[in-house]
Amino acid sequence: MHPGRSTEVADFEHLRSFARSRQGVEGFFEPATTVVEATLVLVANDGEWTRRRVASIEEARRLGRDLGMPVYEVGLVGYPERMRRFNRRRRESEGKGTSG
Prior knowledge:
Layout: H1 5-20, E1 26-30, E2 39-43, E3 49-53, H2 57-67, E4 71-73, H3 74-77, H4 81-96
Parallel strand pairs: 1-4
Antiparallel strand pairs: 1-2, 2-3
């Protein structure tokens, strides 16, 4: 068995589970850089998101077809505003729990 294979399976299962358990999920492919591997970010209608490794844009698109969701290239379309709003809400709610 390939050493990384179980991680790859776990990554795909996580993405599938996220997509099936949320509404309006879209995929956003992030290409590999010299520092990080290629990833697929899934973003739900409410802006909740998750990120996992994928081998290529083709693999990301195949997963998108299997799950009936579009997959975009981040370098061409950017991240959706709902994801930024979700991140802001999360930061604000985490900040309220701290004393200062």
